[in-house]
Amino acid sequence: MSDRNSSRPSIFEDPEAYFEAFQQRNRAMQERAQDLQAAMAEAHATAESPDSEVSVTVNVSGGLEDIRFTPEVRRMAAETLRQTVLETYRNAMQQAVQNLDSVMESVLGADSETMSVYRNATRLNER
What we know:
This protein is mainly α. The chain has a domain at 42-126: Ybab, Chain: A (2-Layer Sandwich), CATH 3.30.1310. It is built from 3 helices and 3 strands. α1 (15-41) runs antiparallel to α2 (78-108). It is elongated and about 75 Å long. The model has no long low-confidence stretch (mean pLDDT 87).
């Protein structure tokens, strides 16, 4: 008798082998989680406004990491500056989402079941 996955030993027939296989799967999951965490830390994005007056950097969760202004912003009306910052932030966020998708594919595998679940979840959140 074996588990649902016939390549795994049965806990009833070979508990030691079952436990060893369990530990191997656990180590693999921990390594994958560490890889994902490291990749996500690098997946920030930076966008510039069309005339380069504003530069915004965000992390994959949308957190603002940096914002820079050139001296030209002094000549901008407050409302124009506000709109420019917001639009630049939105562009950076779009890039960050694309970066996150790439990170997830590289760690999980583009055709993996987990990646499919991730894609479905992100589509639901976009609605």
